[in-house]
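TICKET #2291
ISSUE: user wants both folds in one file
ATTACHMENT 1:
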Amino acid sequence: MKPISTLALALFIGLSTPAQAASLFDDLGGLESITRFTNRLVDLTFTDPRTAHQFKHTKKERLARLLVDQLCEASGGPCRYKGVNMKKSHIKLGITEAEFNALVEQLQQAMDEEGVPFHAQNRLLAILAPMKRDIVER
């Protein structure tokens, strides 16, 4: 094979590699979408009788900001979560499995309302699921 042909073939192969799959951050709709569904999540948690009592001493805006950073970072976005780790921030709150599950339902509802694709919701929930052991106490 002539050197020019080899070079052309190498360039063609390099250009024809499949595009990298979209990140979860992108699949969630980016920062704007994450912010919208997180704000909706916080609204739901503060008004749902299954969870509202756990947030009576919580500043809504601060919680929303921390959750946006946490979800953005967890999904591969540019944000950095600077809050306390899950175990430390939930210690002695006595969060039950039912309360945890209610919050997961609220997150799913918020993402549904935002139009987040089901596959992206599942990917995010899979990333967040291990936090359950640090949050649920009883």
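ATTACHMENT 2:
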Amino acid sequence: MKQYPLRLLLITLASFLLHQNTQATPVRVSQMIGFTTGNLGTVGTSEGWAGGSINVTVTNGSGSLNGTSLGLFASAGDKAEVSTIVATNTQLTFATSGQFPQGTPINLYYSFLYRFNNVSAIGTATRMVAVHVQNSGSTAYWSLLAATNSSGQIQLGLHKPGGTAEFATTNLTVGGTFFVVIRQQIFAGGANDIMDLWINPPTDSFGNADENSLPTPSATTSSGTEPTSNTGPGRFYLLSGAQGSFDELRIATNSWADVTPPANSCVSAGFDSHPSDQTVSEGVAATFSVTSSSSSPTFKWQISTDGGSNWNDANAGTGTNTSSYTTPILTVADSGKMYRTIANVLCNGGSSATSSVASVTVNAAVSTPVGLVVDDNWSDFSRNDPPFATNNSIWFASSAPSLDASSGTMVGIPVSQSSRLWVGYFVDLTASLPVHLEMGRTLKATLVFTPTSFNQFTGNSGLRFGLFDYSDGGTRLSGDGFGSGSTGNGLNVRGYMLDQDFGTNFSLGLPMAILARNGLGDPNLMGSSGSFITLTNGPTGAALANAPAFAGGTNYTLEFSVNRLALNTTEVTARLTGGGSNWVTTVIDSRFAYPRFDSFAIRPNSLETTADSFNFTSFKVEVLQNSSPVSPFNITAIQLLPPEGIKLTWDSVSGKAYQVQSTDSLSPTVNWSTNATMTASSSSTSYTNSPVTSAQQFYRVVAIPE
């Protein structure tokens, strides 16, 4: 009798070890470990998230969804909260372009925990998550839908484009955490993929690597089509609208086992990959990353400034407690610093491991002198005829016929129902040097353009302009036809973008958005706002919805400038004039503070949402010296104004401009929002913020140099 329990124990252990040995590192895991409070796309970059949407957020210390009662390994980190506002702009990039081509059969598995928090937010087909083409914010492979009935019960279904959604019969309720597994079976062709959905699958299947013994799916569908491009899937979107909580995302190719970690599994602390040495130019941040298939590891990055003799916890930069750490902007003095991370795992009594050491080399930048960089009017009847000169910029188009300068004016021609991308370089393409701004200098790009007519116009969209840096990790374009739509070799390209609401009348009250590019893993340069973080919307205080906007045949001048105020601070300004307009939006960026640029880009969304064509008559780039810094000053008074107001007063200089900024948290990844930009009229200036919507709020006043 004593042998039977022993034999049973040995069988159980053998089964457990089999599961462990067959598991591999998933393509992506996101447990939201070490995130600060903020928008998921902003604070979650270390785990691959991008997009600055305020509709999907993480609160540090809020805790995870608990899947242990469902048979899963204990969760770690925090969870994401999804609002009722319908939007598709928070995404995780889990593959490179062509990693999973449509012509190569493969199974992709996705799993996550979810909890509905409000049944009234759910309709008959509310989208929860979706997977898109790797470089597209609009072309989907599949979506997971939620539907509710009059009794308040919720069911989930899978939907492919053009097909009929297939719903599972499992009834879910508000407040209950459930576990979802989705299998995407990719087959060659445009209507052959099979989608399988499991809701709370049986626990004895967890960790099972045998594809022939999986539980029966809760729902299966092949109805509809999928994209035929061999770019393949690569974007996982967490959609807002359903008002729920989301956690423990896993994406894998190996097997079911990789996305179903059983409760009795524990992988000790360790690393699958270690940080690698980095070489950057001064003015650029470095990123160090590790991967680990350990069970819910936590991370702590450390820095050594003395060759590894002593180590201190990193307390600046972003991702100090995540698997991917990005330093602050570096100087030559930072060259030689060493970095490592320590992983800790709690299960089985706890374990820890220390990664290998990586170092950074910071090369001195070549500063661009004050003066003209380029002034081009295409009088040579060419847009891409080298060599670069101060009167000759080099422009490339995603489709050659869409951009032509043979008339002596550069003409941009949008196309029906598709975007185009036009990229102009204002540096010597035979050298690797970008424009590098010293502190106290401004890069100013001026573009004069005319929308010719609006005969095909049906509605507004964003006309996007950007200043970018391909030199520091990106690959510069070398010719036309560099990809459909607006791909543009966006991988590792930094920069700022103006997303201008464009049409004959504005559709937005604040029609100018200034964004910073943070999704550096996205090859699509400007096609997806999910690869950017919105820094501000403007003009400040405007209410321009339905007001007259752009007119055919009218000349407009865009001035897009970056002012480097300090090592880690820039001021980005967009000014549009013409036809009696003068729209200005400006923002202080203390997070990215990009100081290096080599290109200017333009992206019309489509013929129907912009103009019939654009005439570009002048493109000028110059580096300016800030004329006079503002003298130091103090905030002299802070007054509470019942019931929910704050009044700030500070010393000022008449005629000088100041920005009032605020934030909810002074964490290392603090993001300051601009409340107002004001021009002082006396030696003392005040600003009232009412109502204050947060329990705590921090303020600062920034003087803007001329």
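RESOLUTION: both attachments delivered.
EXTRA DETAIL ON ATTACHMENT 2: Helices lie at 3-22, 40-43.
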